């Protein structure tokens, strides 16, 4: 084998290794428990121009999902969020989605998306600082916050059946 062939083989092996590592750290990652630290506060505009302040939800269990309309796994998570919202909204769960969509017409586009998909929980527009303060590097990124404002669970990526897994924890927190 020539030196050129050896370098090509090495390059292919590195690419395969990179692909394997990337696939293990994206989309279908395991549920990871964060240190039980205080959830970063935020006050964000909803798609209609109103404001939602996380501190106004104190005393409730809060499920925050960072997402975007252009993200296929985020779209897949909508039925789970609807299920959790509908099941627990009257018992003290607040579901809040924070859109990472950008552009001058992002709020309008997200509002249209909400109507098209019959989203029943509030959708806020990220200011760039909020997603950064939560350490969001990929979406969807879900955070479960207890009644005292502490993050008790973080989920990176879409995991089928997540609503069932989270229901048990939500039941204990309510």
Q: In total, how many domains does the architecture comprise? A: 2
Integer-rounded radius of gyration: 19 Å
Provide mean pLDDT, rounded: 83
Strand order of the largest sheet: 1-8-7-4-5-6
Structural class designation = alpha/beta
Largest sheet properties:
6 strands, mixed
The CATH superfamily name of the largest domain is Glutaredoxin
What percentage of the residues does DSSP assign to strands (E)? 15-25%
Give the H and E element order: HEEEEHEHEHEEH
CATH topology of the largest domain: Glutaredoxin
Gross geometry: globular
- Residue windows where pLDDT falls under 50 for at least 5 positions: 11-36
Please tell me the CATH architecture of the largest domain by its name.
3-Layer(aba) Sandwich
| Number of distinct helices | 5
Summarize the topology.
Layout: H1 3-25, E1 31-32, E2 43-45, E3 51-53, E4 61-67, H2 72-88, E5 93-99, H3 106-116, E6 123-125, H4 129-133, E7 141-145, E8 151-156, H5 162-173
Parallel strand pairs: 4-5, 5-6
Antiparallel strand pairs: 1-8, 2-3, 4-7, 7-8
Please characterize this protein's 3D structure.
- It is built from five helices and eight strands; from the N terminus they run H-E-E-E-E-H-E-H-E-H-E-E-H.
- It has 174 residues and is an alpha/beta fold.
- The chain has two domains: 1-27; 33-173, Glutaredoxin (3-Layer(aba) Sandwich).
- The strands form two sheets. A six-stranded mixed beta sheet has the order 1-8-7-4-5-6.
